[in-house]
Amino acid sequence: MKLSFKIFFVSLLFANTVSAQLPPVFGQEYGSRATKTEMTKTYLTPSRIIWKSDDTGTYLKDVDNLLRKGTGQVAVNDKNITHFISDSKNKPSIILDYGKEIHGGIKISMGIRPSKKPFKLRVRFGESVSETLSDVGGKTNATNEHSLRDFIIEVPWLGSVEIGETGFRFVRLDVVDADEDAPIKSVEASFIYRDIAYLGSFNCSDSRLNEIWATGAYTVHLNMQNYLWDGIKRDRLVWVGDMHPEVMTINSVFGNNSIVPKSLDLAKSQYPLPQWMNGISSYSMWWLLIHKSWYDYHGDLKYLKEQETYIVELLDLFTKYIGKDNEEKLNGVRFLDWPTSTDPKAVHAGLQAMMIMTFEAGSDIMTLYGRNDLSKKYLQVANNLKKHKPEGNTSKQAASLLALSGLESPVTINKTILKSNGVSGMSTFYGYYILEAMAKAGDYNGALDVIKKYWGGMLDLGATTFWEDFDVNDAVNSSRIDEMPKEKMNDIHGDFGDFCYVGFRHSFAHGWASGPTPWLTQHVLGINVKNGGNTIELKPNLGDLKFAEGTFPTKFGVLKVSHKQGKNGKIETTFVAPKGLKVIK
Questions:
Q1: Global pTM?
Q2: Cβ distance 441 to 411 under 8 Å?
Q3: Please, are residues 543 and 525 in contact by the beta-carbon 8 Å criterion?
């Protein structure tokens, strides 16, 4: 059954009314009161109670009142109240679920009681249920880094307090003091997000792919705060390399949004040459590659020309790190992604490939500037770099870049490395480039299978946003993130992780993991942007799908596209294009 051109991931649990527009993943009928400044703040009611320490009604009375949609305003005659009652031996606690990962905090309101002293609560935010059960430090490595998620607050008598700014889905509340009887009216989530339209959409005959597309879109949306971050709990910074998949997602979902140039300009000002972006040489390459992609999609030559001096100086700086044998010899932090960071051969192979991609993009940019001498110069550098063939690399991440840069045959790379051991050895960041390399090899069905197994594996564990890292082997005998930990089962959040994402420090809403969203738009819907966004060439690849349809934001307006499998495997395509856009099919 075909669905309309909207976001098709509506299963959520929020029972509120809306005055500002919630992201489509919440469903149009859900929402709550909102206040709009630069960002939007919406108040959400918990969808369910995961756990409570008292089932007798002695220390926690009428807890279902917390699930009632409220007004956010206390009164002296409130009736729908939850009582938190403590004595010297019993200090009750409760875990609430807001249904979907969000960015923000909570607002706790207390009614009238004989004692006018503030009521102390320990608050623990969690991206998983198990994170709310943790203490800071220890083996599972829960932290208060980047954003506070574990602290004690005071709720005023006949008033409210709003606290927290982090990424979470779950909240645990613990009464701190003995001899309390606190009439709590509500515990609402204050959801902070950018109120923008989802102009792009994707729907096909496979509901799992639809959910994955929407989850990637929502993950990036959450990270579109004052700047484009990589994570909303941890990594609330502009990491330039991590931005590349995020920007490709923004291109496919939100179109030309000012947060991208704003974040690129911030990075340029924070890391003046000869510094590398974020101290990482590859991230300076990603900065240039993002600029090339941003122009390709939106055709903003004025903005691109503002970067001219910096880009020329950056490319000339890169030439200083090429050896006589055309081998890259980059300094600074040599980094592709975390799983490859202990493999020098993979890092070298990836950096060599990235240098080629960077100089080719630089050559194209020089042509746009009308500087044909520099265009020829940088293209020659790229061709020289192709004379060096890195050896000994077996990582999927670096192999994908070798294929994309033309250093190796995409078909050979796909057959010998990318398809080896299924989705083992994947990473959430470079998963996008692995999919791109598989597409270049013509293996669209293989790529769709990877998307469903790898990114779908996170959904199977309860994810509503995509994670900083995911190893499918860790999923074996692991419980879901939206359930209480189970005996004899692993904790997918607290028991795993490496490098910077050990245990609960692991971010469960990381924008770099959104790669399937732009990939499905480009390669299944077939949206190939040309000529600075003036032209769309439709080249759909449905694989085994019966149909695919969706929308795409262009500089002229929204393009609507529909494909279905016809007789003899021929795809039947229809589209509705905005005036001014050239469409080739």
A1: 0.94
A2: yes
A3: no
C-alpha angle 565-437-574 in degrees, rounded to nearest 5: 25
Quick one: tokens of 142?
A: 């829960």
143: phi then psi, degrees, rounded to nearest 5? -135, 165
Other C-beta atoms within 10 Å of 33: how many? 18
Other Cβ atoms less than 10 A from the Cβ of 348: the count is 22
The whole-number pLDDT of residue 39 equals 84
Instruction: Let me know if 32 is exposed, middle or buried by CB neighbors in 10 A (0-12, 13-18, 19+).
Output: buried
What is the pLDDT at residue 24? 81
Q: Is 377 helix (H, G, I), strand (E, B) or coil?
A: helix
Is beta strand 159-175 parallel, antiparallel or unpaired with respect to 119-126?
antiparallel
Distance of CA 388 to the CA centre of its chain: 35
pLDDT number for residue 35? 55
Predicted confidence at residue 16, as pLDDT, reads: 34
- The C-alpha R_g of the chain, in whole angstroms, comes to 25
Give the chain's length: 585
DSSP structure class, residue 341: T
- Residue ranges for the chain with pLDDT beneath 70: 1-20, 27-38
User: In this predicted structure, what is the pLDDT of residue 454?
Assistant: 98
pLDDT at position 525 = 98
**Cβ–Cβ under 8 Å, residues 520 and 542:** no
